[in-house]
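forwarding from the other thread:

> can someone predict this with adenosine-5'-diphosphate?

sure thing
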Amino acid sequence: MTRFRTLDDLGDVTGKVALVRVDLNLPMQDGAVTDDTRVRAAVPTIVELADKGAKVLLLAHFGRPKGERVSTQSLSMVVAEVQKVLGREVMFVPEIAGPVVAQAVGILGNGDVAILENTRFWKGEEANDPELAKAIAANGDFYVNDAFSAAHRAHATTEGLAHVLPAYAGRSMEAELTALDKALGNPVKPVAAVVGGAKVSSKLDVLKHLVTQVDHLIIGGGMANTFLAAGGIDVGKSLCEHDLAATAEEILDNADKAGCTVHLPYDVVVSKEFAANPPSLRECNVHEVAADEMILDVGASAVEALADVLKTCRTLVWNGPLGAFETEPFDKATVALARTAAALTREGSLVSVAGGGDTVAALNHAGAASDFTYISTAGGAFLEWMEGKELPGVKALEI
Ligand code: ADP
Ligand code: MG
């Protein structure tokens, strides 16, 4: 596992200025924050540093202003929400470097917190300009990265700062890296992976990497159709990437060579139209899908078999729903398998880690998320980690 410094390695920080990269890219609608998960994730690090007497300067991006000041994407918009979740007063500073920040540092008392402006207002952020990193660093004593979700980007505040200041992983970053290491870095075997979702094309690299890492690869969702079709099965009008047949075959070959067992559904839920509880709904063997039907979920007996696979495993990593779970009853397989994983985790026989926007929604829908060992909300960074890629923001923290 990557070795990195954590907040435990900090000496006395009284009166020191902490530059803390967090994820404040909050979902908003009509000026109101619709989900405060990311703020809550940053709280432990902010509170710990503030309570140790540091002056805490938060760095974050918001939206995609592309190197320009865009008033509707000012981080001032999230200050009220951060104050609410943190339960403390937070100052807003409309710059990220220079005399305005220096002046703010002078005004802040030990243990106070400020949010600096949207880092992406400056072109040097995404260009990872070392001059910008140096200018930001000039107002701080040390750097803490607590934004795993931005760690797949080599930007000035996600990567560059780690080269110009003593760098530490924040509590949320530390928890994420520890959980991911337990799931794929250094897992207890046997390891199962569930990969689902709409398309093979969006997760090709994930599949390629996983077959070399896990003992059981469970493929569900729309992407299973591509594998079934590659094997000569008629999937009717299911979502299917027929042009990826050769790639699917190659992935299966590689799995075979690596000793990874791939599980594809052998019975499925089909219907002629994509709607909630459609009249044409039925379950059938994968060989019995009619030309005018589409596969929208894994069938009940296949799910039972998959549950049995999980019972033999000690580690599970999950990305992608098994069916079109947003529409009933095509959530059934995902819900059933998620609950099995949750129960096994509760019993202590499984370490379960999941990530991905729709996956988290599906696990919440199943009431299973809170029982999982770890749920990553990181999106792109989580997927790149599942592809076996080194994340620049994590690499820069390495000691
Ligand atoms: P995540 O966001 O967790 O990475 P994806 O975005 O890859 O997951 O995939 C989720 C989407 O896949 C969902 O919108 C779901 O409806 C869709 N999906 C799953 N199974 C099927 C299927 N059999 N046919 C069509 N769409 C599917
Ligand atoms: Mg998605």
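The longest helix spans residues 332-347. thats all i got for now
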